[in-house]
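Forwarding these from the shared drive since the link keeps breaking.
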Amino acid sequence: MSQAVLYALGSVVLVSLFSLAGLVLFRLHGLTARYVIVALVSFSSGTLFGDAFIHLLPESVEKHGFSVSISLFVLAGIAASFVVEKFIHWRHEHSSSPDRIEAFAYMNLLGDAVHNFIDGIVITAAYLLDIRVGVATTIAVLLHEIPQEMSDFG
């Protein structure tokens, strides 16, 4: 097995272990928990944007040259994120019936599984590109994963 794949597997295991970070929220209550979650979600978004625009996008441009297709992929990703968020908030309700809670739990589990699968693909692709890019991406995913898992527990 190549060194890059071993690094990728180790990184994915490390990121998976950090999913237990949500247990910290059980010790926090009320406004403190809300402030921590808002700060961590902002930090999480910033890390992913920073990694994408400071590491991954320049690496892609350096390797393949600047092209309209790279710009279109970035724009399509931003537009797709916007559409998905609008669709999710369009159906957002504050119902507490058992059927709604159970459906939300299944959706959350499925979404989390897809999210973690994509994290693994991104980390592996980054390591296959370059070890340094893989480490930077692992750190970004790790810093993104902590608030994401805390929000699952909260």
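-- next protein --
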Amino acid sequence: MTSETFILLSGSLTFGVPIVLAIRELRGLRRGGGGHSEPAAPRPAPRPRGGSGRPLPDCLIPKPRPARPPRVRELA
């Protein structure tokens, strides 16, 4: 293998392959994304159908978290 062939192959593997892969990824992003920068809003959870009509027990009802008391900084 001549030195010119080695330089050509080495350069194409070093620079050409990553550039081709990057261009392929960018083209795939453009097609699949649809041009929207923000993701779509998630769907709400489906409402249960039927059911027994009984209320939830107290342990399963979500309760608001209590507010933390303000931190008092000590003077040292």
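The two ends are 77 Å apart (CA to CA). The chain has a mean pLDDT of 80.

- D.
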